[in-house]
Amino acid sequence: MRSCSAPWRVCRGRPNEARSAAGKAADKFPQPNYITLKIAEEAGEVIRAAVHYAENRMECEELEGEIVQLLAMLNRIVPPTACRGGGDRP
Question: What is the pTM assigned to this prediction?
Fold first, then answer.
């Protein structure tokens, strides 16, 4: 099985990219119900990317990009500051 460090790179170096993507998505789609649907869609994209990566049909960087998009949607529903007591939930 191939090895990919995408989850670790995302955790270390890509949260700012996810926050930026979340801000852009919030401007484009401000409705809270839409966020929950996008989380489900992005989670499905991560699964698809993981399967394609395991089958050698996708590169690790593409998987990483899908993970970042999922994190962006998760940041919209529960911003990191809300988890630390520094902000309100949307």
Answer: 0.65
